[in-house]
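Hi support team,

I submitted a single chain yesterday and got back a structure, but I'm not sure I'm reading the token output correctly. Could someone confirm the output below corresponds to the sequence I sent? I've pasted both exactly as they appear in my results page.

Thanks,
R.
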Amino acid sequence: MPSSTMPFVLSARPLTLHELRLAFEQPLHVSIDDDAWPAVHASHAAVQRLAAGNEPAYGINTGFGLLANTRIALAERNHLQRNIVLSHSAGVGPLLDDAVVRLTLLLKVQSFLRGYSGVSESLIRLLARMLDAGLYPCVPSQGSVGASGDLAPLAHMSLPLIGLGSVRYEGRVLSGAQALAQMGAQAIELGPKEGLALLNGTQVSTSLALAALFAVEQLIAASAVVGALAVDAMKGSDAPFDPRLHTVRGQPGQIAAAEIYRQLLAGSAIRRSHLENDERVQDPYSLRCQPQVMGACLDLIVNSTRTLLIEANAVTDNPLVYADLDEIISGGNFHAEPVAFAA
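Hi R., thanks for writing in. Yes, this is the structure output for that exact sequence:
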């Protein structure tokens, strides 16, 4: 476990934006609430029953994509899950930052704990142990289109679980086998649906978009401070930030932005120095339209934040398992269109 970590208890409950931001910023000491396991066990048991049966279930006893109508022999079904990880580990380009990979691992574990993916407890625990140990898979930044989920990067994320690929640890690169040995763990054999569940999902796209969101938060804060300083430096008026102006327009971001500027300019001695005998009727656009411009940005950022927070807590692999009905449903939750618009 890294020397400076933040305790992080995972369960089926949704993660907050604050928790996601903290997970992006620093290593985690991860544990899993016992209450999360019954749903995981039930969905895994349902997959085991489906895998042992003759009814076709996509990606469990059939091939993938165009080979969905090809039935896979019982003895080959675990090999199928390993092969999908190997076949999709074809990313290129610079590696994703450790912070993005850490967030990706967290979101994948969080999704599995919802109990709709049909994976085993041992798989989830191994992902959590990697996260806890600060062992971050080497994931190339290019290779996913998001329309079928983040297949290539998630395949690279998954390779160390089966003793392959490579991992970064405190600036050093280890092989997947070395990483497992450092944890005192063994490579796992992927069971029915587990390779598919690992690769399907929007966790990489969502983590990248969240990384951008956290950077934009800092830019918005800095922009407001610089804007307020500019008003003071130009001996501008604080009248454009009067709440009455913004209330009658009603745009929530504009109202919030004006409040920020009022707080930043409150008590300004420079402002007091030119309250009387100032011949200017009004300030230039660049000063007095700041709430309108920054407020419009805030509205878009708030909307993107809402989308990304939902997606961070979503179940986005395919197919999904409904253990109470012993049913598996194929769909398209892996499609990252909501993330694309937010990004």
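A quick pointer for reading it: Residues 58 and 66 are 11 Å apart (CA to CA). Let us know if anything else looks off.

Best,
Support desk
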